[in-house]
Amino acid sequence: MVAYSSKERTHFLDIANGSLMEVSSQIELAEAYHYISTTQRE
User: Secondary structure of the chain in the HEC alphabet?
Assistant: First the structure.
């Protein structure tokens, strides 16, 4: 088992959160431009 420092864990979580926000914004744009429906978004 690998133990990560608090700084490494925080860095990883920051990157993961940024990736999540990127996908979320792309889904919002896809709905706004009618590439997907509200049902598909859910």
Answer: CCCCCHHHHHHHHHHHHHHHHHHHHHHHHHHHCCCCCHHHHC
d(CA 42, CA 26): 14
- State how far the Cα of 22 lies from the Cα of 25, in Å rounded to an integer: 5
Express each pLDDT in 5-41 by its tens digit. Answer: 999 999 999 999 999 999 999 999 999 999 999 999 8
- Degrees to nearest 5, angle at CA 24 with 30 and 10: 160
Domain ranges of the chain: 6-41
Query: Global pTM?
Result: 0.76
